[in-house]
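Minutes, project check-in
Item: structure for the 294-residue chain
Input as provided by the requester:
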Amino acid sequence: MRTNQRAVSRRHFLQCSGVLALASATVNAQGQPSIAAGTERVVDGIRFRWCPPGRFLMGSPVTEPGRRADEAPVEVTLSRGFWMATLEATQGQWRRVVGAYPDRVPTSEFGIGDDVPMYWVNYLEADQFCATLTERAGRAGELPPGWAARLPTEAQWEYACRAGTTTATSFGTGLRLDQANVLPETDPDNQGRTPHRRAVAAGMYPPNPWGLRDMHGNIFEWCRDWYHAELPGGLDPDLSGIQGVQNRDGTYSRVRRGGAWNDPVRFCRSGCRFRYEPERRSDHIGFRVVLVQS
């Protein structure tokens, strides 16, 4: 019975992920089944949302308030859809998938709890979480061959964050304190609300149009790409294997996205990007998982 259940679970995932076409399924121009953006699936207890193939303008226009010099727009085409975790990876998920915390552990000062995003993890630790999740889900029959859990590329991250929007954030030109865990800027709509000034439980704030939560604020999120001064454009850009700008000390940095609880709104925009050395950890940097065809 267990074998049959696993086979059914695997077939269900394949049907919903575009790997296996059903006779009645609507297909796109590439002959792959079309799945509605934001469709939800659960793998190893983690909820994911479908981000369909598509084209978008990555970066920000020169007229956008708070824009940084490394956000010059480029056109990106993502030929394959992917599943992105609805929430940032939480402390509870970390303990269940990995077990022991890294050298630095979450503290009450910066937010602690099974539902609070995991932080104090460097790039390699976040990447290892994804590798362990891939092994676990594959062994359980929840992740079919050819699929893997990974950190998102920078293009995948911004595409999912925008979810079809073109404004500075997926909520419009700015963010209110009831929309994201950020520091307030001059905004009369905050109506006296005060910032948390620490990480809070993932999913407390409204979702973007594809059902993803906390893409703005709460915790910065590691991306796979090495940091380059210019955004990668074109077809399925992935700079995870190409080191970019060298730091003054001779090291290289990965990209982090989304802003955090200790950042003003301008650093939490959809197009905003920062560098960070992959071996470092911080009280405001975590990660989010994607499921992709490897």
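Outcome recorded: The two ends are 30 Å apart (CA to CA).
No further action items on this chain.
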